[in-house]
Amino acid sequence: MSHDDAGPLKVLMVSHYYPPHLGGIENVVHAEARHLTAAGVQVTVLTSGERSSVTVEDGVRVVRVRAWNGLERKAGVPFPIPGPKLLRRAVRWARWADVVHIHDAFYLTSWAALTAAKLTRTPIVATQHVALVHHDSAAVGLVQKAVYATAGRLLMRGSRSVFTMNSDVAAFARGLGARPERVRHLPNGVDTTLFRPIRDAAEQAAERERLGLPRAGVLVLFVGRFVPKKGFDLLLAAADPGYRLVFAGGPAEELAGAAESVLYLGSLAPAEVAAAYRACDVFALPSTSEGFPLTVQEAMSSGLAVLTTDDTGYAAYDLDRDRVSLVNRDTETLRVRLREIAADSELRRQMGKYAREYAVERFAWPEHASLLIEAYRAAIRPRTSSADRG
Q: What pTM was estimated for this model as a whole?
């Protein structure tokens, strides 16, 4: 019997976190789950939470396993440690699913899902979001290497498709054993309706007033966790009278001692993040080892002038470097370039126009979901064919 005869496609998506927890991977999984559901796929998300629960959110079944999140609170390392129910839940839902889609190899939820998929002989599709990430802690670096050399290698070798967002991560996945023909480039999608440019100066003024931001002056926005790989500290050090820095994310204590001119919006839900983009003029993210982060895509979709690190991961995207500013990751370079952008309103307008047009053309979620469905069906076929021959 073919899968089409058996009813709707059933997918177990696995992520260490899921909204309301804020972060790039969880936002991607949330959007994928909603758009797949809209396309007729039955989606269950396996994730962590403050307590165990099973809920239905936007048509998506969300299975949360209670987890300890002390590493993120104490050391800025987003690595939840779920309780003993994790593997049992993973096996149950892997058995239900036609495909298990695991997001990043680094997390305990991913290891449990990999084990469950092997036990139930359910095909695996993976999205690897990052390569090795530099961290100031040598211990964290050693743990990363150990995890990717073990669980990461097993996941990359066992996946029918491995999705990556840039050439660096694709090379990393191949280095862990992913077959070259199975590694596929898939940019994250963006909600181009939610993340849209301001209509006019009056709307921007209203958004600034609502968020408690100054009405005058050029505002440079940072969105993300305040951890070294995001470069928030480099941006703080690049404060300048020619513009004001605005930070959204956390934890707030990392901004202690910042200049009085620095503004802090706190951790924001997606709709408020979209409003923050509209309220500001420039987006800056001097991150490392991220390739093309989701916040850069959101800022482009919002029509902002964008400045970010000149990462080799951007090569696959063929960006116009006159319209997206890719710079070296040091404070003085950041300050000089931000000062130039802040002083030239026509340059900001041209950069914002290019960014919006690029985002609408390249980052639409429905096309992203269609490519995922194609990969899921391809992953199922080998198993179905074997069964038919038996």
A: 0.74
